[in-house]
Write a structure and sequence with these properties.
single chain; 687 residues; alpha/beta; Barwin-like endoglucanases; six-stranded mixed β-barrel; 24 helices; binds ligand MGD; binds iron/sulfur cluster; binds molybdenum atom
Length: 687
């Protein structure tokens, strides 16, 4: 058996180093205090510079989540109708034998009728796709296109800078001007906010660009409260002003960029006045920002994923990523842009996930963002076989995927065989045929890259598994054995997988003793150009995109559902996360849910008055896709014409068994095939 045991706890109190598993750019280094085998406290590792000994409120409550009385402790088999959430305990052997039989029978017809569904419930490379990837590759199951979060921005960066690459986050502390663009850093990138505060104490100006007057916006020096999905128009107007005032670094542009003449021509079509009408902010405010950006060095942009959850998210990322090359901001280590540095991490995904086990087969790929439609699609030549089995781990699609009424219809199919590996009886687990108890980060090994800093962080198990829980890896190992897979890769243990993840690129002994290890990353990555694009330049014009028949230059691509375009649904809705939840994780942790209270919709005073809505009143938010009941909060956090439906509640813990994704659509972005959670028209009425 390869199950990881808890460390020897002969001593009454020990401290175990770990990594925060959540999908958060900070990837904090943890220290867990274990007394007589029980984890009593989870703290930030004070030795890790980025964490600096501090965790967010959510993960400070990690022991409350781990020892939650509602943890799934045994395998469970469905006894009621799909979705009713009625289950009986069953032994591991019986559950795995039945699951293996069901999957084998489907695979004998066509393994592509089986689909894995996973995302970043843990960002660990081992409990993520290591053993799971091996299992599904050996099986020949459909592949999953993991687009639900970041692929529009990711492709935008790749087609401009050459990859998910950017500034080293620590140098934001030395910037003189910081644009916080599509990021509520206080809620979702807390340790970056600490660096921004440091810069500000040294005199830096912070400018937040966000349709919501977020916690971060209200604490910044300036807030451009733009209409959702209009960021490219703003970026072009900034370029327009940089050109008109000649706040350009001509030498940098000539040596390190591609497509300048064409970009200049496009930018000249975007006067601040034109952008002001599209973005819904005063032209004077755009001019002032352009002046600041054009005349302050070093200037840095913290771009984050909130601005790319709209139709034009990929193009907007491209437009914004052009800015630092125009002013030569990249010359300084405290200048440039950071959206993600995940491409810095030399993770050996092929070694972990073993795509070679496909042995020449090329299964179809299903986009996780259209799971609602895809579960309901019949067999066809174009689509291939109907999806007959779904194995869900590290994700809660019934709550987080767009257009949930369609997702629920898919999960409710009586002929769909669904297995969910989980800590809790989530909305998704309610639709399972089997729920299998998985370990949490305190109970297993893992190793983490991250997208917000450039250190590898190791997670060592602090306590024994709760109940009969097993690591995801062990569940897939046992399932592989049941399926008769005898390849040696199916018995490799978790510590070996951690060692294999980065191979010689990282000093594993240092990870074991210190908990984290920095990657060698240049301080100013593009000071001398060296972009990782085909041309080696910052590509204003992308030949690769042009060859795909797309616009080689970035452009402003309006939303699918443009504000003001529909008389039935006059309000634009965005649904950024509630501060004390992490996507749908922690919604069931009572102390955190108590802070959030009820699911809320922030609405401006004028939109509320026009509808007879008073603060605290329960409202119905609706469009053609569905309706959602929540509590109205009249607040200047919402700009007139835009409502903020904070996410992502468990449906069953909300007001009427739905959440905000009842309203979002399965339409996709311009690049990256990603969902458009913040591109959604609705109306609201009091109940
Ligand atoms: N507390 C907390 N932290 C989290 C998460 C969480 O759920 N809760 N989720 C984690 C995950 S998975 C991710 S991907 C990151 C997400 O964190 P971010 O990358 O920061 O993205 P969001 O939180 O989606 O949105 C950030 C801000 O963008 C704004 N925004 C919405 N639409 C637009 C637009 O069109 N233009 C602009 N300029 N801004 C817009 C939103 O109002 C929000 O304030 O955070 C991670 N951290
Ligand atoms: N309306 C709207 N919808 C959104 C968003 C939004 O801003 N607005 N944000 C989107 C974004 S950015 C993202 S990333 C997605 C996130 O969507 P998901 O990736 O589904 O993230 P979570 O909701 O946190 O659910 C993760 C689940 O994994 C489980 N889990 C954690 N660790 C483990 C483990 O080790 N093993 C197993 N088996 N399970 C584990 C947790 O218990 C949890 O239920 O949601 C998207 N949906
Ligand atoms: S969720 Fe983010 S801020 Fe909170 S502990 Fe984890 S990595 Fe740190
Ligand atoms: Mo995400």
């Amino acid at each position: 058996m390869t199950l990881t045991a808890a460390p020897v706890t002969a001593k009454a109190s020990v401290q175990i180093r770990g990594a925060c598993p959540h999908d958060c750019p900070d990837t904090c280094a943890l220290v867990t205090t274990v007394e007589n085998g029980i984890a009593t406290e989870v703290r930030g590792n004070p030795a890790h510079p980025m964490t600096a000994g501090v965790l967010c409120t959510k993960v400070s409550r990690y022991t409350e989540r781990t020892y939650h009385p509602e943890r799934v402790r045994t395998p469970l088999r469905r006894v009621g109708p799909k979705g009713a959430g009625r289950f009986e305990p069953v032994g591991w052997d019986e559950a795995l034998a039945d699951i293996a039989d069901r999957l084998s029978a489907i695979a004998a017809r066509d393994p592509q009728a089986i689909l894995p569904y996973s995302y970043a419930g843990t960002m660990g490379l081992v409990q993520g796709e290591a053993m799971a990837g091996r299992f599904f590759h050996r099986l020949g199951a459909s592949l999953l296109d993991r687009t639900i979060c970041a692929s529009a921005g990711g492709e935008g960066l790749t087609h401009t800078l050459g990859g998910k690459l950017g500034m080293k986050v620590e140098f934001f502390a030395e910037s003189r001007l910081i644009l916080i663009w599509g990021s509520n850093s206080i809620a979702s990138n807390l340790h970056f906010w600490r660096l921004a505060q440091q810069a500000r104490r040294e005199g830096a100006k912070l400018v937040c660009i966000d349709p919501r007057r977020s916690e971060t916006a209200e604490k910044s020096d300036e807030h451009l409260q733009i209409q959702p999905g209009t960021d490219a128009a703003l970026a072009f107007a900034l370029m327009h002003e940089l050109i008109v005032h000649d706040w350009l670094d001509h030498d940098y542009i000539a040596r390190h960029t591609l497509g300048w003449d064409a970009l200049r021509e496009r930018a000249m079509q975007w006067s601040p006045e034109r952008a002001a009408t599209v973005c819904g902010v005063p032209a004077a405010q755009i001019r002032a920002l352009a002046r600041d950006y054009g005349t302050t060095q070093p200037a840095a942009i913290r771009l984050n994923y909130g601005m790319q959850r709209v139709r034009g998210g990929g193009n907007a990322t491209r437009a914004i990523a052009c800015l630092p090359a125009l002013t030569g901001a990249w010359r300084h280590r405290a200048g440039g842009l950071l959206m993600s540095n995940s491409a810095r991490f030399p993770a050996r995904r092929d070694v972990l996930q073993r795509p070679d086990l496909l042995a020449g087969r090329q299964p179809r790929t299903i986009n996780m963002s259209t799971i609602g439609d895809d579960l309901l699609r019949p067999v066809s030549a174009e689509f291939g076989p109907r999806i007959e089995a779904l194995i869900v781990y590290n994700s809660n699609p019934v709550a987080v995927a767009p257009d949930s009424s369609q997702v629920v219809r898919g999960f409710a199919r009586e002929d769909l065989f669904t297995v969910v590996l989980e800590h809790f009886q989530t909305d998704t687990a309610d639709y399972a045929d089997y729920v299998l108890p998985a370990t949490t980060q305190l109970e297993h090994w893992d190793i983490h890259g991250t997208y917000g800093h450039t250190d590898v962080v190791l997670n060592q198990p602090a306590i024994a598994p709760i109940g009969q829980a097993l690591p995801n890896t062990e569940i897939f190992r046992r399932l592989a054995a049941r399926m008769g897979y005898t390849e040696p890769c199916f018995v490799e243990d978790d510590e070996s997988l951690c060692r294999a993840a980065f191979g010689d690129a990282i000093d594993f002994d240092r990870l074991l003793t210190q908990g984290f290890a920095p990657l060698p990353v240049p301080d100013a990555p593009f000071a001398e150009g060296g972009f990782q694009t085909p041309s080696g330049r910052c590509e204003f014009f992308s030949e690769r995109l042009a060859r795909q028949g797309l616009d080689g230059l970035p452009d402003h691509v309006p939303n699918h559902e443009v504000a003001g375009s529909s008389t039935r649904y006059p309000l634009a809705m965005i649904s950024p996360p509630a501060r004390h939840f992490l996507n749908s994780s922690f919604v069931n942790v009572k102390s955190l849910r108590d802070i959030e209270g009820e699911p809320v919709l922030e609405i401006s005073a004028e939109d509320a008055a026009a509808r007879g809505i008073t603060s605290g009143r329960v409202v119905r938010v609706f469009n053609d896709r569905g309706d959602y009941h929540c509590q109205a909060v009249i607040s200047d956090r919402a700009r007139p014409g835009v409502v903020n439906g904070l996410g992502i509640w468990w449906r069953k813990l909300g007001l009427r068994g739905t959440n905000v994704n009842e309203l979002t659509s399965q339409k996709l972005t311009d690049l990256g095939r990603a969902p458009v959670f913040y591109d959604c028209l609705v109306d609201v009425q009091p109940l």
